[in-house]
Write a structure and sequence with these properties.
Rossmann fold; single chain; about 290 residues
């Protein structure tokens, strides 16, 4: 890589097939948490260095539960990525969030059960703040990019992450609506929380593909429905990413890059040497030399 990418885009493998992407390189990266879902593709887009990672692997081989979220985030951090844009499919739990629309959620509800939710263990305890789980500044930048690219976009909303891989029952979908959830997906958690632990800005460009199963006058969600809508929206996602690369000015005022400052509770001199080594990329700046 000629220069560290500021942006890392996590999404489908089709997202990075942008004709204007130049200087393309593929990187096989090993992390303390294993290999990421796919090789990381780097390149320059309108002169800006970017990185792409296929969340479910090339050819969509990994279910939402099987995705190695820790390795994905760690690998992106290791090559210098500072801001992560998640591109994902979602179901709408609101009548006014229609298939084809884009939602940029500002809140998350973790309803998963079987996933590793934190990097930290092995004698190191960290309590990360997640009251505001996505980066407000980066969300605003994405909103501008999608709007400028011609998409219908909704700023704000709560995204509930279910375990999957099955879709919801009608009873579950109706319950989530009664809780005040706006959209539903399978991958935002723990991805967003791991990005916060890695002190990376994180925001989601969620593509509404269906009305889940609560909307009795609409066809229940199916794989065919999701794929068709995502294919239509791939061009919009690519256009928004190109806009970001061309117009982004790093004037953010968020605190994502210092998220661990007051979060490490373990007494520093009691952190095992092997633990300090394993997590050095994440914690070294907070440890005495």
């Amino acid at each position: 890589m000629n220069k560290n990418p500021i942006f890392g885009i996590i999404g489908g493998s089709g997202v990075y097939q942008i004709p204007t992407l130049k200087d393309i390189e593929s990187h096989e990266i090993e992390t303390p948490f294993g290999h990421p879902s796919s090789p990381i593709i780097t390149g320059t887009l309108n002169g800006a260095p970017v990185a792409f990672l296929a969340r479910h692997g090339i050819g969509h081989r990994l279910s939402p539960t099987q995705v190695n979220y820790r390795a994905n985030i760690f690998a992106l951090k290791s090559i210098g990525v500072r801001k992560i844009i998640s591109i994902s499919a979602c179901g709408s739990l609101r009548a006014d969030f229609a298939p084809g629309d884009i939602v940029i959620p500002d809140q998350l509800f973790d309803f998963t059960k079987d996933r590793e939710r934190s990097f930290f263990a092995d004698g190191l305890v960290v309590h990360i703040s997640s009251a505001e789980p996505v980066c407000k500044d980066l969300s605003g930048v994405i909103h501008e990019a999608v709007t400028s690219s011609g998409g219908k976009v909704h700023k704000g909303g709560t995204l509930i992450t279910i375990e999957g891989p099955r879709f919801s029952t009608r009873a579950e979908s109706s319950t989530f609506r009664s809780w005040g959830m706006d959209i539903i997906g399978m991958t935002a958690c723990p991805e967003a929380f791991l990005a916060r632990e890695a002190e990376l800005c994180y925001a989601t460009m969620a593509h509404v593909t269906d009305y889940d199963v609560w909307h009795v006058t609409e066809e229940p969600v199916s794989v065919d429905m999701v794929v068709k809508t995502l294919n239509k929206n791939t061009a919009l996602a690519q256009k928004a990413i190109q806009y970001l690369a061309e117009h982004f000015v790093d004037t953010t005022s968020c605190t994502c890059e210092s998220a661990l400052k007051d979060a490490i509770i373990t007494q520093r001199d009691l952190i095992p040497i092997e633990t300090r080594t394993k997590y050095s990329l994440l914690i070294n700046k907070y440890l005495p030399t």
